[in-house]
Specification:
The structure is a homotetramer. Chain A is of the alpha/beta class. The first copy, chain A, contains twelve helices and 13 strands. In chain A, α1 (14-23) packs across α12 (322-336), α6 packs parallel to α12 and α7 (151-165) packs parallel to α9. Chain A is globular. The first copy, chain A, starts with a strand and ends in a 16-residue tail after the last helix. Chain A binds chain B through residues 174, 176, 178, 180, 182, 197-198, 200-206, 208-209, 235, 237, 239, 241, 243-248, 250, 252, 254, 256, 286, 288-292, 295, 305, 307-308, 311, 313, 315, 317, 352, and chain B through 174, 176, 178, 180, 182, 197-198, 200-206, 208-209, 235, 237, 239, 241, 243-248, 250, 252, 254, 256, 286, 288-292, 295, 305, 307-308, 311, 313, 315, 317, 352.
Amino acid sequence: MKRLRIGIVGGTGYTGVELLRLLARHPHAELVAITSRKEAGMPVADLFPSLRGQIDLAFSTPDDAPLHTCDLVFFATPHGVAMAQARRLVDAGVRLIDLAADFRLQNLAEFTQWYGMEHACPELLQESVYGLPELRREAIAKARIVANPGCYPTTVQLGFAPLLRTPGLIEADHLVANCVSGVSGAGRKAEIGLLFSEASDNYKAYGVKGHRHGPEINEQLRRIAGVAPGGGAVDCLFVPHLAPMIRGMHSTLYARLTPTGQTADLQSLYAEFYAREAFVDVLPAGSVPETRSVRGANTLRLAIHRPRADTAMILVVQDNLTKGASGQAVQNMNVMFGLPETTGLDSLAVLP
Amino acid sequence: MKRLRIGIVGGTGYTGVELLRLLARHPHAELVAITSRKEAGMPVADLFPSLRGQIDLAFSTPDDAPLHTCDLVFFATPHGVAMAQARRLVDAGVRLIDLAADFRLQNLAEFTQWYGMEHACPELLQESVYGLPELRREAIAKARIVANPGCYPTTVQLGFAPLLRTPGLIEADHLVANCVSGVSGAGRKAEIGLLFSEASDNYKAYGVKGHRHGPEINEQLRRIAGVAPGGGAVDCLFVPHLAPMIRGMHSTLYARLTPTGQTADLQSLYAEFYAREAFVDVLPAGSVPETRSVRGANTLRLAIHRPRADTAMILVVQDNLTKGASGQAVQNMNVMFGLPETTGLDSLAVLP
Amino acid sequence: MKRLRIGIVGGTGYTGVELLRLLARHPHAELVAITSRKEAGMPVADLFPSLRGQIDLAFSTPDDAPLHTCDLVFFATPHGVAMAQARRLVDAGVRLIDLAADFRLQNLAEFTQWYGMEHACPELLQESVYGLPELRREAIAKARIVANPGCYPTTVQLGFAPLLRTPGLIEADHLVANCVSGVSGAGRKAEIGLLFSEASDNYKAYGVKGHRHGPEINEQLRRIAGVAPGGGAVDCLFVPHLAPMIRGMHSTLYARLTPTGQTADLQSLYAEFYAREAFVDVLPAGSVPETRSVRGANTLRLAIHRPRADTAMILVVQDNLTKGASGQAVQNMNVMFGLPETTGLDSLAVLP
Amino acid sequence: MKRLRIGIVGGTGYTGVELLRLLARHPHAELVAITSRKEAGMPVADLFPSLRGQIDLAFSTPDDAPLHTCDLVFFATPHGVAMAQARRLVDAGVRLIDLAADFRLQNLAEFTQWYGMEHACPELLQESVYGLPELRREAIAKARIVANPGCYPTTVQLGFAPLLRTPGLIEADHLVANCVSGVSGAGRKAEIGLLFSEASDNYKAYGVKGHRHGPEINEQLRRIAGVAPGGGAVDCLFVPHLAPMIRGMHSTLYARLTPTGQTADLQSLYAEFYAREAFVDVLPAGSVPETRSVRGANTLRLAIHRPRADTAMILVVQDNLTKGASGQAVQNMNVMFGLPETTGLDSLAVLP
């Protein structure tokens, strides 16, 4: 098969280097351009020494990059960049995967509230598809623009989906998602709070007054449950925490079971729901997943528990940069171009 | 004042070395014996290089140690040791603080269920006092035997106490305590799962089929709420997790507020409840506590939030070895012997 | 091409799981047996959750395993196991790669001194080949038994080789190798000193009275320099240290330059020496390598410096489990069976 | 005794918060002002949550601070600040301890070369005293201005001093100091390279083209050896490395022994040299010091080894922020004001 011509806009952050790591070994991808105004001219391998000898490309300015001739362009940029360039690229026949948030929220008011800007192309937003392949595979295959999900929302959605898709099992208006991320989730930004000497040997909650992934989680959980937008019957309290690890995300999800839910075989429900998924691993009953078991892999592992008669608890882990970001983006690419979904994503977790 | 004659039984673990660190600088404590069958004859400072030049004592066998002449003996031993020796020591006029679990559960059936042994001295158990000074100060002052609380239970009790003491604020039968500990909480045991190469850069839940601190938490929360033992009106789901840090414990507590609770001024409730406490720091509204802010200090910090109209969330941090174990034991000692409660406990957290 | 039938003896340690990670994706390897007396019957993926869904094999007892039908057997065992089984396997036509030390030292007296046992098969030792492909490629290709080098010795040999191969550049009798390893180098052993709470946020030297890799380093450096065994003209002081990271090895090598050496173009010397090597990356002048740049990859990176007119300093990094152990073992396998040397070893370092 | 009136200029960095931690418990120190233009008005405890409830002071602008009425002012500022303000303070009768480098190098040309600025007050530099109490106690006691030593230079000087003070033991012109620091040594600066996701699980050399502590080390080693300034007979190659820990510094020092040195009893030499020092702990023969054994304490531990007949190796550890910076500053303060040298510095290392 002809190799896909791939462009990356941005790419100086952690989702960027992870995307490069994966694409460098993807048998059907040919990276033709990677742009960064700030680092234009610098070989990618000078910024990320892990890429020495593997990727010859240098960063170029957006103007010099042949993005319009690409089959697919990934945006690994700050919020707001993808929506500003989407129209021109789409009109040129280029498909897009945005790893930022520009196409994650269909609710325009919420987008403006949480991201502090008007949406630049509401009509493209409307046709864009939320790129969680396990739940939206067919739409993704046909999409011109795919919104790569946030890292936390991926764990929360895949964790709750089996319970929400079957009506009447849980009290969906009082879900709790107690989530933990490694520090790379905050990006490659020179901020005091992300320093080794601040974040190491430490644990804290953050974003307690509200986090951008909250509205994304709830918009999507409502869709999964089949509730009309704005419907209040699904509500998840999302509380993120920061743990001293580089990669890794762990979500502990709580839902009160209805009397019907209390009689359901939850282990079978989950096992069957994900039976045909390559990247979702439902652990045997009684197990606990560990983040290190997915370090560098595109796998999400989960375990379903019932610690109290009327309570379901789901433990979910993923690598926030792989299944939580760039691995999922490559998975979306595979779906969009009709490749086997695991292409280029089959390397095993690095453990220990 | 005459220095108290202090003995330590056990002391080769992390609560032991923390106790030694604190007692070495306590102006009214004179350490006269520390016992360990296994390490008998070895200078304490050979086992813990941080004590070189500070503590001259060597470990002795329990038989050689002048424990019966002590004013106070700490048990920093595995479960089951303190209750076997308590009777003889108490009869000799020695007071006891047990850092293990022998005197934590008043319910004998639960003790046997969770610790796999019959209780050796139920009558002493009955007179013993649960040593959480902020809630039981007067009883501790007079006690012959003090049960030093578990690390997790300390955070959960001090976190929920203001809400539970005022009747009718929360749905007390559906509390959730999502808790995280640093690895030192598991003790100084040569186990694969606690190796650096296993526990580092990793996060996981554990004890999901039930953890010994669960019944302790619920027995004490019922007491705080004034519910009769066995009463089911208080029930807390406790889920512990392991994070890659040496010291530090973080509990995220969730409670649904009743209509009454939703109108209460929770910030004031907490601020007033702990206004006179030296070791409980209620943060200003909107804050998040960090575990590193209490590293090596006997302080517990907490913040009360209302992330959803009908939900209270309390964030609690402590050093699991200090306020969560040995610091609290010294605090109990101070209370028992009429010393100012902060004596020997005033050093600041080590940050960064 | 027909897939090679591969057996692994041992494999419950970190070099074992790393070998499994690599072989699971090797296009020409078919893993037919993995043995462990202790874990016989347990699926490999139950011990190492990162392998779930990737490796179906269970551990078997050595007696039940079809090792004699293999093309190649890896020994990822404690010292002494491989040499006890080598004769039978070799006679059955099976080739061997020992990841332990049984075939690393040609000097029998030193083997006994450092490993506390007589060598079980000196005649096989004599024909065995020390498996550092960059220096012994042709001999490895024909060997029946390959001694996979120690992790530290790999960095020291590849670091000093260009200087030693050209006679007269350095004072070879006073080399210094100040080396640092991540904790996984000590293996998956339940020892107090390897606990997270002991090894984290800590740094120390170890093995200062002598380390087994010392004689290995010196025996090989003499060979590289062309000095007769026992010749004293090459002597390297090797000092290992332990740093709080899972994977990663860093060696800082010092050599005094002779007047001739001071006039040499060391950067070119190194660049040319390794110009055709896929797994040795000589950094540009003035660079420093970081261990994370090779995390999980089979690459060794080095930089040559001259910090004082008469002193050469070489900075070398590798992943101790990959190029320092199991990656190098697979590289040796590729050489032994005439495969391209990079087969199955082309995945990029995981960074961050 | 009357409490000393203390001012701190700067103090928003890690040496600042460490100084505050120590001074808050110093029985003879009264902190009257702490300045920061950037943070003026902010309570110190808002910046460093570990100080909540312990230090009431807020940062003030330099102009508002009553520095001229202080007995002593610490400068915990970037290089260049102390020398600009020293004249006015000294003339007002205030004594100074500079934790930066303004008074560390007596050689003006080297100061300009390494710090990129002319010295502002060469005459004050000349009278200032290099504040390593173990070697310069009497001069410090009388000094108006004390240059607090760099962290690395403290370990290198105290490590080599016994060997250098006795003439003829070592080849002093070829010393090697292979040194390692925790990340806090780089300060509280928002730089990419210091992020948790960059510095964690990583190890690298840095400053290989020259580091500011190099000239400081050599100027002081020459003084210790009694060599005239500019004399070349003492030369130490200093190579710093970065390890993933918050606090902690480890130096591995190498010196070739002369024939005389080879017959000396090095263990006794070191033990006697430091016999009366409260903060230098010479370990028993054969020991290795660990950085964690001094975490948060003002102790420097070292061990002297002879790994090769003609080579001495000294292993030295300290907490880079305590004995390596702020603890040593308080030790200097004690010396300057005739207090027992251990005042306020007697808390034990936090281990684990």
